[in-house]
Amino acid sequence: MIDINIILNAVGEHLFLAYSALFISIILAIPLAIISLYNRYLASVLLVLANLVQAIPSFAVVAIAVPLLGIGFKPAIFAIILRIILPLFKNAYTGLKDIDFFYIDSARGIGLNKMEILRYIRFPHAFPAIFAGIKFAAVIANSVAILTSLIGAGGLGELIFEGLTNFNIPKVLTGAIPAMIIAILLDVSFSLIEKRISLEN
Fold first, then answer.
1. CA–CA separation, 185 vs 92, rounded Å?
2. Which one of 13, 29, 49, 77 has the fewest CB atoms closer than 10 angstroms to its CB?
3. What is the pLDDT of residues 107-154, one digit of tens each?
């Protein structure tokens, strides 16, 4: 039987790794989406990259981080950010851009400037799309954090892969079950918050 402190420590490492990367990605992706609203070239380049990144296996993204940054926590954070930032950007940009022109034209008609239109018109309409992107990114971050244990990041993935190496099924389950519970709780909680935001808007 594995010590409960080892499990709790692994859960803590896993959550800190995955959601530090998610927080950084949100901070980077939303300003990029705003800038791209007013720069068509940047928007087209980032949208193409976003579509390409979604086609790249997560394991390959983790592998790319090693020759660039080595092994450990920092390359693991980098790998997760690399995997989720562009899908986050794509949802945020699409949500901010796909607004009925009637609303934009009406806002201009009453004298709102670009920043006011962004704040009072674009963002409220974009919240569902942005939040859907955050929900998707959170689930992906949770799964990629498992893989980053292969490059020395620790967490639940370390228990899973150690168990697989030694054919120790209880140890595999000790890492896999908390990871699945986290994923389910994330999906349910984000869905409820997303629904509430959608109703408010």
1. 23
2. 49
3. 888 888 888 888 888 888 888 889 888 988 998 999 999 999 888 888
33-92 pLDDT tens trace = 999 988 888 888 888 888 787 788 888 888 888 888 888 888 999 999 989 998 899 999
pTM to 2 decimals? 0.86
Task: Look at the block and give the residue holding tokens 């949500």.
Answer: 95
Domain spanning 4-200: CATH superfamily: MetI-like (1.10.3720.10)
Residues 6+ apart with CB under 8 A from 55: none
